[in-house]
Amino acid sequence: MKWFGRKAARATGRPFLFAGWRHVFAAEPWPRSYEAQVREACLGNPVAQRCVRLVAESVAWAPVFASEARPAAAALLTPALLETVTTYLLLHGNAYVQILQDAAALPAELFALRPERVTVEADGAGWPAAYCYKVPSTGSGQAAQMRIAARDGLGRPGIVHLKAMHPLDDHYGLGCLAAAAGAIAVHNAAAKWNKALLDNAARPSGALVYEPGDGAALSGEQYDRLRAEMEAQFSGTDNAGRPLLLEGGLKWQAMSLTPADMDFIGLKAGAAREIALAFGVPPLLLGLPSDVTYANYREANRALWRQTVLPMADRILRGLSGALASWWPGLRLQVDLDQIGALSGERERLWRQVRGADFLTDAEKREMLGFAPTPADEAARAVA
């Protein structure tokens, strides 16, 4: 292949010809808006998406029962609703559940609103008076807006506002997405690096240095032709490993840093751990290598339930049961811990300890295990 003659035309010097990695790690600001962060995390990052799904699906399918034997209240808590509310709480830090009533003025359905579309309207004292739900306009249509009072004339709530603690805000909660944005950006940039490396023949980029003996430089036409032939014949996965024939004063000079110099593998693994940390998921459950924080998978799964899933479920169920108590006084929604397989070891150990406590009566043992007293126990207490 003949790129140019023996003597190149003397022209203005051209820059080195190379495909570097700087465009992959170009200085780009982290996404600030909620929608942009969701697209980067849940739609574009496998670690963040798996963390959200793991927590949300665990809360959605946790066994829930209602006290006072109120099946109508428990029937409102569908797995789809709990999964949606948990996802909004994790990402945004706020979840707004609208209570829809039937003809008899009883709760018929619970509907989760998009949190980024809800605005809290406070009264003169600073307490929430209403919630404004605004759907942005699409195309030529106008934006739809709905104002829902915090409570109706009878003092019953129209919307249940669930939120995570925010130390600097009175009305809005703090989600996990903002804290994980930096690690998500690093992890996504590492994925782009791998893709760019694969597209560029899966070998480090460098420069073709032109050093003729007489000090000549490439002309513009020669430079453009050389670049086109390099991209067509020596770039991409189909051309990986093809030998490069250099002539006329050209030599190849590697310029990019190696993954070992950049600690590339450790950087990506560290970013994945930070993402898992922000969402409260043990890294071992995500298959991350070289993580020995937990002894085994069972211990990590138990830590997920105790430290993340159960506190999140308790926050949601307490908020919903407190609002629905306006229709069903004394209502309490809670997770049935006896039916959670990840906690079966703890339950078995508690049963063994209670059974061995000879100084406790049967009524006290039932109470410690969370069972209701028998009629005989209630009669004995009445006599005492």
Could you give the topology of this structure?
Layout (H helix, E strand, L loop, with lengths): L33 H8 L4 H15 L3 E3 L4 H5 L3 H13 L2 E8 L5 E7 L4 E5 L5 E8 L8 E6 L9 E5 L13 H23 L6 E5 L9 H15 L15 E5 L4 H4 L1 H16 L17 H28 L8 E3 L8 H12 L6 H7 L6 H9 L1
Antiparallel strand pairs: 1-10, 2-3, 2-7, 4-5, 5-6, 8-9
Helix pairs in contact: 1-5, 2-4, 2-8, 2-9, 5-8
Overall description:
By secondary structure, the chain is an alpha+beta fold. It folds into 3 domains: 1-16 and 206-254, no CATH class; 31-116 and 160-203 and 261-330, no CATH class; 336-384, no CATH class. It has helices spanning 34-41, 46-60, 71-75, 79-91, 177-199, 220-234, 259-262, 264-279, 297-324, 344-355, 362-368, 375-383, and strands at residues 64-66, 94-101, 107-113, 118-122, 128-135, 144-149, 159-163, 206-210, 250-254, 333-335. The strands form 4 sheets. Strands 3-2-7 form a 3-stranded antiparallel β-sheet. β2 and β3 form a beta hairpin. α2 (46-60) crosses α4 (79-91), α2 packs parallel to α8 (264-279) and α2 (46-60) packs across α9. The radius of gyration is 31 Å and the shape is flat. The model is unreliable at 1-27 (pLDDT under 50).
